[in-house]
Amino acid sequence: MILPPFLKAGDKVGLLSTSSFTEQKYVDELVQILKDWKLKPVLGKTIGPREGSLAGPDELRKNDLQEMLDNDQIKAILQTMGGYGIVRVIDKVDFSKFKYKPKWLVGYSDTTFLHTHVQGMLSTATIHGTMAADLEAGYTKGSWESLRKALFGEQLEYKVAAHPLNRRGTSQGLLVGGNVSLLCNAKGTMSEVDTNGKILFLEEVGEKHFRLDSYLRSLKQAGKFEYVRGLVVGELVEMEDDDPPFGKTPEEIVLEVVAEFDFPVCFGFPAGHGKVNKALIFGAIVELQVTAKGSTIKFHI
């Protein structure tokens, strides 16, 4: 997997939304954060426009991403919002210049489509990390500091508290993954995730318990757990039980789906749609250790 060049002081970074509309005040806060990191933010043409819930028409959002990808002066592209929209334009984006001059693509949630597309089609690493929209809930130092470290190529290593459903073991492999429902929706497309021999990260928000089970079972039937070397489960938040109740917690649903496999499983990693969203470098080699005392995830970059 290709790692784009890490950032240095003075680099220009692009801010845009290929998905949903982002309120300007949170973009302004992100601009200040990046300036504090000695970076030079460049606002895309999707900052401001709005069409329904989207950050402008499909053509505008596609062109904004295309221009940022093709601009040699832009060293990283940060999505400001998740929501919905990337799947409407991803197949029209030309990555031919990006292929030879890759740069960091950052975001999560709807950005899952971009992560898996770039990793699968171009063998290039990306960053699953916090976005401007998260500033609505306030500045979470740990989330933003982890993103800074990832962008600048500093060592990333996380310690995660023990969880009663963890499955112990040690493994190593490239890290891939993202939002469960989007990974499921990408099956059969050129943005489909390749999990063979990988450490898989999963997170989800706002789904019914039975629907989470459905997504995971669909991924299982597609062979996405067959050759996984390890599973890291992030935030499963705002999940709604059913009426009548489904009978299992979200974590129990995950564990039941992968029960027949013997790879280590780490629950409770602080990434996704929760209050804390620690940065993950998708496409980097990680070492996963799950013990009775807790889990360790160490990046080799």
From TrEMBL:
Active site residues according to the UniProt entry: 109 (nucleophile), 203 (charge relay system), 273 (charge relay system)
Using the record's annotation, list all stretches that form the LD-carboxypeptidase C-terminal domain: 172-288
Q: Which CDD domains match?
A: Peptidase_S66 (cd07025)
Family named by the database record: Belongs to the peptidase S66 family.
Instruction: Please report the name of this protein according to its UniProt entry.
Output: LD-carboxypeptidase
Entries under Pfam families matching the protein:
Peptidase_S66, Peptidase_S66C
**SUPFAM superfamilies named in the record:** Class I glutamine amidotransferase-like, LD-carboxypeptidase A C-terminal domain-like
UniProt xrefs under InterPro entries:
Carboxypeptidase_A_C_sf, Class_I_gatase-like, LdcA_N, Peptidase_S66_N, Peptidase_S66C, S66_fam
Q: Which GO terms describe its molecular function?
A: carboxypeptidase activity; serine-type peptidase activity
Q: Where is the LD-carboxypeptidase N-terminal domain?
A: 13-129
Write out the entry's keywords from A to Z: Carboxypeptidase, Hydrolase, Protease, Serine protease
Source species: Rufibacter hautae
Q: Decide whether keyword Hydrolase is in the record.
A: yes
Gene Ontology biological-process annotations: proteolysis
